[in-house]
Amino acid sequence: MPYFSYLQHIVKDDYLLCSMELRNLLEKYHKMELVARTQLMVFMDHLIGIDATEMDILCIILLKNIQGADLSRNNLWLINAMLVLFESHREWLSPRRAVVQGFSVALVFHAVFIIPPTHR
């Protein structure tokens, strides 16, 4: 993302405003096209990489968009995208971090490994 470096120079609130705007976008996640979803995941990847504020909450909101008993291409894409995101930021899911992130480890396990296989 070439414009991400520009954003880093003007941020004074540890990306809180970005997190709030992303939360508003995530309310309309199912209406987004695949290109917008891909860009959202890339942006979240960058924000997690710099340890921006409230990214754990945004990831939980995204995980809640994984629908049980739905093996559609969009749902499987979201599962895969979240797995890639968490795989590239393993240290971010460490239980020694904030309480909400410790909860997100359990939610990641439940959403990715329990919901899809039980509904085949």
Keywords:
single chain; about 120 residues; mainly alpha; 6 helices; globular
Task: Describe it.
By secondary structure, the protein is an all-alpha fold. It has helices spanning 4-10, 16-26, 34-49, 55-64, 73-88, 99-118. Helix 4 (55-64) packs parallel to helix 6. 12% of the residues are buried.
Number of strands: 0
Approximate shape: globular
Q: List low-pLDDT spans.
A: none
Category from helices, strands and their pairing = mainly alpha
Fraction in helix: 55-70%
Total helices: the number is 6
- Report mean pLDDT, rounded to a whole number: 79
| Estimated radius of gyration | 14 Å
Order of helices and strands: HHHHHH
Report strand %: under 5%
Largest sheet: none
What is the rounded distance between the termini? 37 Å
Task: Please give the structural blueprint.
Blueprint lengths: L3 H7 L5 H11 L7 H16 L5 H10 L8 H16 L10 H20 L2
Report a brief summary of the structure.
With 120 residues, the chain is mainly alpha-helical.
